[in-house]
Amino acid sequence: MGLLDRCKALVVALTLVLASCGTAKIAEVDPKLQPYVDEFSKYFGMKVDWVPTTFKDLKDNWVGVCITGGDSPVVQIDPGYWEEADEGEREALIMHEYGHCVLDRDHDDAMVTISGVKIPKSVMNAYTFSGIIYLKYKDYYMKELFGR
User: Fold this and answer.
1) Measured between alpha carbons, how far is 42 from 37 in angstroms, rounded to an integer?
2) CA 4, CA 132: separation in Å to the nearest integer?
3) What is the rounded distance in angstroms from the CA atom of residue 22 to the CA atom of residue 115?
4) Where are the beta strands (DSSP E) in 9-146?
5) Out of 22, 28, 54, 114, which residue is the most buried by the measure of CB atoms under 10 Å away?
6) Is residue 86 pLDDT above 50, yes or no?
7) How far apart are CA 137 and CA 4, in angstroms?
8) Average pLDDT of the segment spanning 25-54
C-alpha cells in the first residue's frame, strides 16, 4: 500500500471514529478558496473537509503556510498575494499547501526538463513559479504530487 493509500485509509478511519462520536466537524474554508480545495479533493480521491483554510496577512514574504501540531492542520493564505496571483498561481499554491498538510510532503526544489523546457519538478517547490507553467504541465504536476 503506497503512502497516498495509507493516508486515505487513515483519513477514512479517523472520519468514521469522529462521526461515530457525534463530533465530526467540517472545517471552515473561505469561499474564495473553496474551488481550489475542491480541485485538490478531486485529485486526492475524496473530499478534504477537515483542514481549515483561511486568509491571513503573513510575514517574511510568505504567500501560504501549513500549520501543524494542533487538532488539525491549518492552511493560511496571504490575501495580498492571492489578489495579485493568476488562476494557475492560486491553484498551485493550494496544491502546495495541501501537499504539506494532507500528503505530508516536504519541499522539493529540483528542476526537470520536459520537451526541452526546464521547469520545477514539483508544486512542492519552495518558491512560487509561473501559473502559466503550472497550467501547461498540470497533468505532470498532479501525477508527481499524488504519486501516480
Assistant:
1) 9
2) 27
3) 52
4) 53-55, 64-67, 74-77, 111-114, 117-120
5) 54
6) yes
7) 21
8) 95
CA–CA gap between residue 33 and residue 54 (Å, rounded): 8
Tell me how far apart the alpha carbons of residues 116 and 31 are, in angstroms, rounded to a whole number: 39
Q: Give helix then strand counts, H and E, for the chain.
A: 6, 5
Residue in the block written with cell 478531486: 42
For domain 26-146, the CATH architecture is 2-Layer Sandwich (3.30)
Compute the distance between CA of residue 107 and CA of residue 120 in angstroms, rounded to an integer.
Answer: 11
Across 87-96, average pLDDT: 98
Spatial distance between the Cα atoms of 19 and 9, rounded to a whole number of angstroms: 15
Scan for cell 500549520, then name that residue.
67
| Angle separating helix axes 34-44 and 138-146, nearest 10 degrees | 60
